[in-house]
């Protein structure tokens, strides 16, 4: 048996297409253009790549993109002043502060300074609380993308056993909340979990969000399970030549694909869905801000 490959790249393209359609209608019918402000502090190379990609895709779906690049030594006071300005700017419907921030800045303080209704990353404490209590919130983009792929594949997730490996605030915990919201029986595993292989073997759905290259081998996977690999790890690719690297997930794709029922590849799985969901969240924030019906 070979697993069905869940094509996140193609799925993300359909999400972006839908968003673009709604954006065009908002402009035509209401004269409103959704706007996303992205704030980057410092010059972390990976963050620069993400920010560029986010800006490009924002413009491609017809939204306004506002990029704010600040020096690495920007003070907390100046960063908070910028966030305050963006909170009060009616052209800006979504605000994203690219993480990680340089060490002298308090991430919690900065994220919680964002107006929760513009917090398209869903990291503000209000949105975390709303999600945890099953109320309407801004949902973190990566887990939202994973949930969309799972719903698309399974239809209903009700009653399925799900294991989320990783308990970070940006992926693991909100992922577990979303799966619980869809009536899965959820286990959250982490670095202190005893007998992780056994825990994973029970699961109909495995979401791996650890950041350890290929740590989940195929023989941990229950036959027919759905595997969502969030991990993005760069490893040496000696087969491509000295100094070359390639991206792999947290799951050993080659062995897992022989056991799973469906699996997301890395790259081309969860990654593309994350930015597509950011755009969808910005559209949602814009509709809410203007008292308009939210797109599904
Ligand atoms: P964090 O480092 O914040 O969290 C990693 C989690 O994995 C922690 O909860 C940690 O446990 C757990 N963990 C570490 N080692 C083990 C182990 N041996 N066994 C079981 N659990 C373990 O990472 P993130 O959640 O931010 O990201 C996870 C991965 O997802 C990374 O590769 C990241 O690059 C990727 N990512 C991908 C995105 C995308 O768009 N595709 C977006 C965001 C992240 P403990 O809490 O006990 O330390």
UniProtKB/TrEMBL annotation:
The gene is folD. Pathway: One-carbon metabolism; tetrahydrofolate interconversion. The lineage of its organism: Bacteria, Pseudomonadati, Pseudomonadota, Alphaproteobacteria, Rhodobacterales. NADP(+) binds at residues 166-168, 232. The keyword NADP applies. Residues 140-288 form the Tetrahydrofolate dehydrogenase/cyclohydrolase NAD(P)-binding domain. Catalyzes the oxidation of 5,10-methylenetetrahydrofolate to 5,10-methenyltetrahydrofolate and then the hydrolysis of 5,10-methenyltetrahydrofolate to 10-formyltetrahydrofolate. Its EC number is 1.5.1.5, 3.5.4.9. It comes from Aliiroseovarius zhejiangensis. This is Bifunctional protein FolD. The keyword NADP applies.
